[in-house]
Amino acid sequence: MRNLWLLVVAAAVAAGALTACTSTGESDGSAVRESAPAGADAAGGDKAGAKSEALKDVTIVRSGVEDHEVWGPGAYVVHYKITNSGKGAADYFAQLEFLDADGDVLGTTGVTADKLGPGKSKQADTAPLESEIENGKPSDIRDVRVTQVDRT
What we know:
Elements: H1 2-22, E1 32-34, H2 46-56, E2 58-68, E3 72-83, E4 90-99, E5 105-116, E6 121-126, E7 143-151
Antiparallel strand pairs: 1-7, 2-3, 3-6, 4-5, 4-7
């Protein structure tokens, strides 16, 4: 089941990357992508405001090393919440970056919420797989941040 989940996330990331590479920069408002770190100021009018709102829909509730029934003993677990602040149902993909003590990116993972109704929330947890930490070891993780949110 975990492998199927990773395949779905990888496909979503690849599709997002392909879309970003072929985009003209114009948006019809149907999809929102935010690539700035959480809390960054957005400029540029209504489009930036929509992007900023999508980024605000994903929050890290808490994170750290814990013994977890799914992720195992001593896993770096991220508890997150996705809340749809839009006016209609939406699908979410959020990218998380794992950082070392110096703030360098060790790797990334993604989380999703499907068909989330307006005003509804999804709370869950995740942990990076060893293969997702490309620039160190899972034991090097000291922090996590939301770096991208796609709302469609």
